[in-house]
Design goal:
The protein is mainly α and about 375 residues long. The protein contains 14 helices and no strands. α2 runs antiparallel to α9 and α3 runs antiparallel to α4. The chain starts with 7 loop residues before the first helix and ends in a 5-residue tail after the last helix.
């Protein structure tokens, strides 16, 4: 069977859409107050360094997903159970994205539609695109990349021209607030959304231009950071620190305030569409990574056979993971603080160092 491949711009588009995902809609970096937009940029250098670790491991083992080279570097007895830990983390995070999308759709538009129906439709769409393969998925990302960029420019433009922006909500930034912004950037924003790129360790083996993997990824992360920082700065300038920190979806709250000459109003659909597209791509990549790792660990020759089981697990996990949205956010804080850093940063850096050590002293058989 021909190996599926993706090109540089397709990888670029997938990374941007993944990074934006839910991070562009939900509040992030609340510890930094009105300096959240600075925290996003401060976390970028650390995110790039983490991506360079992923890229280096890919260049050393271009045909293996993370579970494959984990076993190769650490040995089967340590590498296999360590790789297995990625499956519940990936599935849980995918279900969290689905839960957030369903809650926003229910609270904003589809208040009479059962959340099970909404989440099921999204999961079916994800299963369909994954069954079609990574090439079809990456070509879809190329199209939606431009759609997201255009909608982002339009929504931010109308917010600015409507006169809602208040720069006093962003400035001044005092020396102590720079430290708060740095504390919010690491590890919170560093891991979410930058560290979540660990999912791409399952996608990079399909990349057809090995020598462009670093340039493509860094460019995509830089653009994502700028878009996230600018969007959250606009939201913070409109809502202020108090409302931004208390609202569930600040982007949605911001766009509902737009009123240009009593003509341009009710642009809620842009936010809804942005969330649906972002969650679709982010959840799809999480599910694809879970499918790829599971297929590698359990020697499944046709990974497509695992698409439906993974989709079903993500669907039902989105309901049973938390009783309500408040508990969902509380669990997410603990998950981000204690589990994700280990999976996204500690293990890949450990693999990077051990591989360098073993290769330096000729310890590979």
């Amino acid at each position: 069977m021909r190996k599926e491949v993706i090109g540089p711009f397709q990888l670029f588009a997938m990374i941007v859409l993944f990074e934006l995902g839910t991070a562009v809609v939900v509040p992030i970096g609340l510890e930094s107050g009105h300096a959240v937009w600075i925290s996003i940029m401060l976390a970028l250098p650390g995110g790039i360094l983490l991506y360079l670790v992923y890229a280096d491991l890919y260049r050393q083992f271009p045909d293996l997903v993370i579970s494959g080279y984990t076993r190769k570097i650490l040995g089967r007895w340590i590498g296999w159970p360590l790789s297995l830990l990625y499956l519940p983390v990936l599935l849980y995070n995918g279900s969290r994205n689905l839960r957030e999308a369903g809650d926003l759709l229910i609270s904003s538009t589809y208040d009479r539609t059962p959340i099970f129906i909404i989440n099921s439709i999204m999961v079916i769409a994800v299963m369909y695109i994954l069954y079609k393969g990574i090439e079809v998925f990456s070509r879809t990302a190329e199209i939606y990349f431009w759609l997201i960029v255009i909608m982002g420019l339009v929504s931010n433009f109308v917010v600015i021209i409507s006169g809602l922006v208040q720069f006093k909500n962003l400035f001044p930034i005092h020396p102590g607030e720079w430290l708060e912004a740095l504390g919010s950037a690491y590890p919170s924003i560093w891991i979410f959304p930058y560290g979540e790129l660990v999912c791409f360790t399952a996608i990079l083996p399909h990349f057809n231009t090995k020598n462009k993997v670093k340039k493509t990824g860094i460019g995509a992360m830089a653009l994502s950071a700028f878009l996230l920082s600018f969007t959250h700065a606009v939201e913070m300038s409109v809502l202020g620190t108090d409302i931004y920190s208390r609202t569930t979806f600040p982007m949605f709250t911001t766009i509902t305030l737009v009123n240009v000459a009593n003509f341009i109003q009710r642009l809620d659909a842009i936010v809804i569409l942005t969330l649906i597209i972002g969650v679709f791509f982010k959840m799809s990549i999480y599910c694809y990574a879970a499918v790829s790792i599971a297929a590698d660990l359990f020697n499944v020759k046709e990974p497509r056979q695992l698409v439906i089981p993974v989709g079903v697990v993500v669907l039902f996990s989105s309901f049973i993971s938390a009783e309500n949205y408040s508990m969902h956010m509380k669990d997410g804080i603990a998950f981000l603080k204690y589990i994700l850093p280990f999976m996204c940063a500690v293990i890949p850096i450990l693999l990077f160092l051990v591989h360098r050590f073993r290769r330096r002293f000729g310890l590979y058989k």
